[in-house]
Each structure stands twice: as C-alpha cells, then as structure tokens.
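#struct-pred

JT: dropping the chains for the assembly here, can someone run the whole complex?
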Amino acid sequence: MNSGRYNRQTILKGFGLDAQQQLLDAKVLVIGAGGLGIPVLTYLNAMGVGTLGIVEQDIVSESNLHRQVIYSESDIGRPKIEVIKEKLTAQNTTTKLITYNTFLVKENALKIIADYDIVVDASDNFPTRYLVNDACVILKKPFVYGALHGYEGQVSVFNYKDGPTYRCLFPNMPKFDEVPNCNEHGVLGILPGIIGNLQALEAIKVLTGIGEVLSGKLLIFSALEQTYQKIKFKVLPENLLITKLQETYNWFNPCEVITSISASKIQELIANSSQIIDLRTNDEYADFHLAKSIHIPLNTIDQNLDKIDFSNPVYLLCQSGKRSQLAYKKLVQAYPKTLFYNISGGLNQYLTICS
Amino acid sequence: MELLFFGIAKDIVGKSSIDLSKNSSLPKSVEDVKLFLTKKYPDFSKLSSLAIAVNSEYAADDVVLNDGDEIAIIPPVSGG
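RK: done, full complex below.
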C-alpha cells in the first residue's frame, strides 16, 4: 500500500492504516454506472478500495451529461462501461477493476454478486432493485441502497448483519405504471451526486467499521428544503428466508408471447421503410432518433392512434425495450389483426451494435 | 396531526404536507390514513407498496394514532 497517497485519511483519528488496509482488501460491486454509480465509483476508487466490480450495459447519451458528470460530450454513443473503466484507471491505477458489460438479470445476478463483500445498488429501476435485494439476501451480502425521485433521494443499508432488507420497507415490487423513472419524471442534476456520495460513505463505513451504519433506518433527503429525515424500521424475519430468486423480475409474464425482433434488424427496417413507432419521451427523441420513425411518447399513445397505420406491420421501439413491450401489450389487444413487433433491446442495443 | 408526503405521494397531493389538526375527525389508525388518502386523492389507490411512518418510525396498518402525530407517507422510488 502506498501510504503517502492515502495519508490524509490514514492520519485521521479513528481511521488509520488498519481501515485503509480493510479498504484495500475489499471487493465492492456497483450495479449501474449512471447518476448514482458515478459518485460511488469515483470516491471508492479514489479512497483506495482494492477491487471494484461494475455492472452496466447502457451507452452514454446527451441527456445523461447533466448528472453523470464523469462522461464528456465526446463520450456520447460509447458504452458507459468502457468510458468509466478508462476514467477510473486514470484516476487510480492500483484499483483492480472488473467490468461486466451486461445488465444485472436473474440469470447472472447470483454468479456476479457471489464474488464481492458488499454491493452498492445504483440501478434505476424496480426490477433490478428487487433482484439485487433477493440475490444479496440469498448470498448474505450487505447492500447499500440509493434511489431518487425529482428533488428527493433515499439511502439505507440493507441486509447488514441480519438487519432489515428492502422488502421490509416495500414488500412488493410496484406495478410498471405506478411510479415514474428519471427519464419520464426528471431529476435535478446534483441530486444523484449527493445521494451517490452518501451511498459511498455508507459503503466505507460497512467496510471499515467506522461510525454507525445506516441499517434499520431509511434516510430521506429533500433537496428543496435541505432536510434529512431518518425513518426507523425493523426486520421482518421472513424476508431473510429467501432461498431462491423469483421466477421472473420482469413486469411481464414470460409465458405471454411477445413477438420481438432484434435491434440489429433496425437498419433493414429503415431500408424497407417499415413503420417504426418511437415511444420515448420528447427529450429522449430530441437527443437522438432514427431518421425515419414516427414519434409517439408512450403516455400519449391513446391520443395518437391515428398516426399509426394498422393495416401494415408496426415495429415498436424505445430506449431499452421495456416501454415497447408495454405498448405491444396494449395495442395487440386493441388491434388483434395487426402485426406488431417489439424491437428487443431498443436503441441501446442498436447503438451498441452500430457504434 | 400532520401528514408529510414524499416521492410520488407529494406529486399526487401537490404539496409536501397537510395539517389535519383543524379537521373534525382524525384518522385513528395507519389504515385509516390510507383510506382517508385514497378517498381524497384516488391516485393513491394505484400505489401497491406504500410505507407509512409515525413519528419517524415505520408503522403497520394497525398502529393507533394520537392527535400530535407526524405521519410520513413514503412510496418507493426507483430513479438512479
């Protein structure tokens, strides 16, 4: 260990060389390298955590830049995992970085998480959050939770020394249309910076034993009032008894057949002048869109049915392939005679393949 | 008695708190609070997973309420 590099924290009373060694020996997995993941990774990397795993499959887009401050304009269109690896390596060459160019899914979650001491959930959707919870409970790994909504954020440490889990607060996953995400609802650029840094702090506390870990307490930060509220909650023992993952963490029943085509076929669709419906928000569309597509944000679809030619095949497109599935389910019921296709993986997949 | 709203609950109600102290009848339990909210703001019926805290402590449906209680309505949030 280069003690000079970490001198300003090793001279800190209550921290010292022992805590620094604990960081060096630690293996931390960060799920997501977006708004929350960037501050988490930046500080854990700077402070000397020995091994950092990163799970991310998204690409950098223009609308990420106001909050995902490690990415530059020149990174737009590149896989986040590649860019963040470069930047973290430049920041600290001694950290062992392990990158997973994938999203966390039921099939890979247990295998990936098993190798780490602690997980930081910096994801941006409920299916991943419930999957992280269940996998960490099964593997007995503590995880640091952080999540955002508008001007507010939540932080807690779950499954720490048999303490409460995510399901002790929110037992069941909300339905897909219950709570909007950042893409639909918006987020103040600095908010993930604050919440992500609080997550990084909790990770450091879990790893080194300093201070009091935020276990059994949900911290709610309100940016507009600059208030921190702590809600105490208890473990419900049945939530620690999870022994296997659910059949599915998707919002959709896997038995229900959705006709899909791969995003790699998009070029072909464009060449054939096929009818592609882009279901993303106005901002996402303004950020990037295909030359030939019909823009109908998912939440306005009912008012814009006249823009769709139901006598021809309809190809449904969004950023990741989730909203297109929602539209598929809705439209296929209303227009059973029309041929609908969900473009699986959406523009993320398309841009990864074609960039 | 004061209700504090977070996340989507704040969006549904349109403000961050409601003071119930001048109401003629107050909710008697956490379950009553949920019924009160659903009746006054039907969008609450869409939320399947809503945490409620009484005086900064997580509270199940059967927890009995007192006049001066501060009740926080905390839906899950997913953004990152």
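JT: nice. Chain A has two domains: 7-240, 260-354. Chain A has a mean pLDDT of 92.
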